[in-house]
Each structure stands twice: as structure tokens, then as C-alpha cells.
Design brief:
The chain is mostly helical and about 350 residues long. Helix content is about 65%, strand content about 5%.
Length: about 350
């Protein structure tokens, strides 16, 4: 099992390296000068050159790429004489750092990955992303919890009540849920439940996790703003989980060992929950992992429509202002999330089915 896990981590690192390479060269060939974006109308030749030097853009592109990898890597290499010039190595300004080794004028430093600074706000990109990711994480977890609990329960009922009225109605709603675009569902839900029926629901059309108090008493957590975006994001995974649970459970219930369990006199509840459901959840786990990864990556349109201050809104604002370091950091951040979740899913598969470890 250990070799299997190490192999999956190795694949993940190679994928991440490929993503970093594509992102760096893609954003560095796009038109536009970051120095002029930062200076605006105050831009002059000397100021532009000074900022480009500070950003490291005065060096050849291959060297810029190596410096970018060095910034992102937790284990980085720096000149001892220039160590103080790297502001993000200062624990008081950025995060924890550890000087591991100094050899021949080179210092090996263990640090947090550095995603550069925003062109617009001059803030550290990782700080901007983490602020948005916390809200996105809460929204994604609530959405998936809603979809998983309701979807598996409905899928089991549909499988046990095959071809009945309940089964047919559930299938119709599942098809509608899978075919309904998230941005359209967000607009529809915001208008109906946040505007037309707001007197009865008490919900707002827009709003984030934290709301500013009208009486000037600061911010407070407003959980009702979580309801509409969580349900909107959960509709599509809910529909898919219902379908997968139903179909997979029907396949498992037709297996020989299930007929043997019935012949032994076991109750339907015991057969479904203790024998059939575990084997039926493999495709459901795949669907859950994929949707969870996409939700954690930021449901851009849904967050933007509901004004939920998550990573999706961060990406939209950065694109609108041509703030490339934030966009690059967001893409890499999302890639890391997807890779980690895929590795965890592979490990879960390996635990559920030992044959997968041999692949």
C-alpha cells in the first residue's frame, strides 16, 4: 500500500509541474506590462525599469521561470549575501522559514510557497486566496453534505422502489438537475426565494458569510446567506448522486451473493446497508470527489451572482483588473486541490478494492 501511495504522489507532482510550466509561460506571453499596470498614468521609463527589476522581469525568460519555481517550492535556494533582500523569507512579514543548510554561498531554505504579490493591492497573493478559499470551503462542504445525504437516500429509495411513481418522479428531477446550468439556477433561485418570496423565506438575493452590522457594531456571521448558494451548487451533484446510487445499487442487488443473503433470511435493510451499499458506492465516490474538487476550486458564476466572497469572486476581480499574479496563483491553488483530492480518491479506491493497488 505504501508503494501505491508514493506512486500516486509522484504522478501528482509531475502533473503539478506541468501545470506550473503552462501557467507561467502562458501568462508571460500575454500582452501588457505589469509595471505600467501598477503605475498607471505615473509611468515613466525609470519607474517602469525599477518595478520590472523588482519583479524580476528584467531577466531572460528561462531564468524568470527558474526563479518562479524557486519561489513556489517549499525547499528553495538563495544567495547568502542576498538573503535579506527576499522579504518573504522574513518570518515577521510572511511566514515561518527555516534556514536548513549553507554551502558555498548558497542557503537552502524551508519556507511556505510564495505566489508573488498582487499588481493592484501589493498584497501577498496567498493571503488573498486564503481569504476567499475559507468562504469557498464552507460553501462547498455544505453543498456536498446536502447533495450526498439527500442523494444517497433518494437513490436507495429509487432502487428499492424501481419503476414506481416515486422512482419516475425522482428520475425526472434528476435529469432536470443535471441539465440545468448552475448560473441559470443561481439567477432563478436568487429571484424566486431571495426576492419574490423573501417575506416568507427571510433570505437575501446576495450576501456573503460575514455581514456588516447596520448599527456600526462590526461584522457578524449571517448563515442565512449560505442557504441559496449551497442549494444551487448542490443541485447538479445531487442529481448525479441519485442516478449513480440507484443504478449501481440495482446492479449489485442482482448479484449472486445478494440472492444468497436473501436465501439465508436476512432482512432487506440489512442486505442493502451492510452488503450491497458498500459495493455500490464506488462510482458514487468518483462523482463526489470530482464535484467536491470543482466546488472547492470555486464555483465562479454562482459565487459572483450571490456575491459570495469566495475564490470565484477573487478570480473574476483579478481578471477584470489584469492582476496576473492573483490569477496565476488561483490556477495553481485550484490545481493543487484537484491533485490532492484525486490522490485521496485513488487511496480510497485502493482500500476498497485491493486489485487497484496492482495497477
Amino acid at each position: 500500500m505504501g508503494r501505491f501511495i508514493l506512486k500516486r504522489f509522484g504522478y501528482g507532482i509531475l502533473v503539478l509541474l506541468g501545470v506550473v510550466t503552462v501557467v507561467f509561460f502562458l501568462f508571460n506571453v500575454l500582452p501588457g506590462d505589469p509595471a505600467r499596470m501598477m503605475l498607471g498614468q505615473r509611468a515613466d521609463i525609470s519607474s517602469v525599469e525599477a518595478i520590472n527589476k523588482d519583479l524580476g522581469r528584467d531577466k531572460p525568460l528561462p531564468l524568470q521561470f527558474l526563479n518562479y519555481l524557486n519561489d513556489l517550492s517549499p525547499l528553495s535556494f538563495h544567495n547568502v549575501t542576498d538573503l535579506s533582500s527576499y522579504w518573504y523569507l522574513d518570518p515577521g512579514k510572511y511566514g515561518k522559514t527555516l534556514n536548513l543548510l549553507t554551502v558555498g554561498g548558497k542557503s537552502v531554505v524551508l519556507k511556505e510557497p510564495y505566489f508573488r504579490r498582487s499588481y493592484q493591492s501589493k498584497r501577498n497573493v496567498s493571503e488573498i486566496l486564503m481569504e476567499g478559499f475559507i468562504n469557498t470551503f464552507i460553501l462547498a462542504m455544505v453543498s456536498m453534505a446536502f447533495a450526498i445525504m439527500l442523494g444517497i437516500a433518494i437513490g436507495i429509495v429509487c432502487a428499492l422502489k424501481k419503476n414506481t411513481f416515486i422512482d419516475r418522479i425522482s428520475l425526472i428531477f434528476s435529469v432536470l438537475g443535471m441539465s440545468l446550468p448552475s448560473f441559470f439556477a443561481a439567477i432563478l433561485n436568487a429571484w424566486i426565494f431571495g426576492y419574490v418570496l423573501s417575506r416568507f423565506t427571510g433570505l437575501n438575493m446576495t450576501g456573503s458569510l460575514y455581514t456588516v452590522d447596520d448599527l456600526g457594531r462590526g461584522e457578524y456571521i449571517d448563515l442565512k446567506n449560505l442557504v441559496l448558494p449551497a442549494i444551487t451548487l448542490g443541485i447538479r451533484p445531487l442529481a448525479i448522486i441519485v442516478e449513480l446510487t440507484r443504478n449501481s445499487l440495482l446492479d449489485v442487488l442482482s448479484q449472486d451473493y445478494i440472492r444468497t443473503a436473501k436465501a439465508k433470511g436476512l432482512s432487506n435493510t440489512r442486505i442493502v446497508l451492510k452488503h450491497a451499499l458498500k459495493n455500490a458506492l464506488n462510482p458514487v465516490v468518483t462523482a463526489i470527489s470530482g464535484w467536491l474538487a470543482s466546488l472547492l476550486a470555486g464555483a465562479v458564476f454562482v459565487e459572483f451572482i450571490f456575491d459570495w466572497k469566495g475564490i470565484g469572486v477573487v478570480i473574476v476581480n483579478a481578471l477584470d483588473k489584469y492582476d496576473f499574479p492573483v490569477v496565476m496563483g488561483a490556477v495553481l491553488f485550484i490545481s493543487v486541490i484537484l491533485i490532492i483530492i484525486n490522490i485521496l480518491v485513488d487511496i480510497i479506491y485502493g482500500l476498497l478494492d485491493p486489485r487497484i493497488r496492482l495497477q
